[in-house]
Amino acid sequence: MTTEAATTAELLSRAREALERYLEVHVDDDGALTFSHAGVPAVIQSTQLAEGLTVLSLTCVVAWDLPDKPGIAASAAERAGQGLFGTLGVSHTDRGLDLTLRYAFPAQGLDVAALGTLLMLVVSTASQLRGELVPAD
User: Fold this and answer.
1) What is the total count of domains within the chain?
2) Which residue, 60, 58, 56, is CA-closest to 106?
3) Which of these, 32, 46, 83, lies nearest to 62 by C-alpha position?
4) Which residue in 22, 65, 87, 116 could disulfide with 96, CB within 3.0 to 4.6 Å?
5) Please, which domain of life does this record's source organism belong to (predicted)?
6) What would the pLDDT profile of 73-118 be if each residue is shown by its tens digit?
């Protein structure tokens, strides 16, 4: 195993430990972590961008196939900006709007408790945004 692979695997292992304090986490074949919080599926991946700079990338799928109305994207972007953690992505498809919330950050050196808190801040922002946009079943 290369140094890069070992570094990214170790960081994913700590992210898994941090998240398992709150959620059930699955490890995919490629090492990515997948989980769901309040109806929001999410994935975490790790990448070494440069020597000594390994980042975690968290992507939350907030909603999909929403009506493609001009106010929805603007409202979601404003709301996501209030959370301070993550960048909202809006995709226009044939079936409507798809929304994601992404957050990438250098995570080396964070202890498990701090890492869990940071990840849950992003995930809870995505879940709150979903609750505001998607009617309950």
Assistant:
1) 1
2) 56
3) 83
4) 65
5) Bacteria
6) 777 777 766 666 888 888 889 999 999 999 999 998 899 999 999 9
Task: Please state, in angstroms and rounded to a whole number, the distance separating the CA atoms of residues 107 and 88.
Answer: 21
Q: Are 35 and 45 in contact (CB under 8 A)?
A: no
CA–CA separation, 134 and 44 (whole Å):
23
Q: What is the pTM of this model?
A: 0.89
Q: How does pLDDT run across 45-80, given as a tens digit for each residue? A: 999 998 889 999 999 999 999 988 878 777 777 776
* Residue the block writes with tokens 């961008």: 49
C-alpha–C-alpha distance, residues 33 and 15, integer Å: 8
For 58, 67, 71, 125, the CA distances from 106, given in Å and listed in that order, are 12, 35, 34, 20
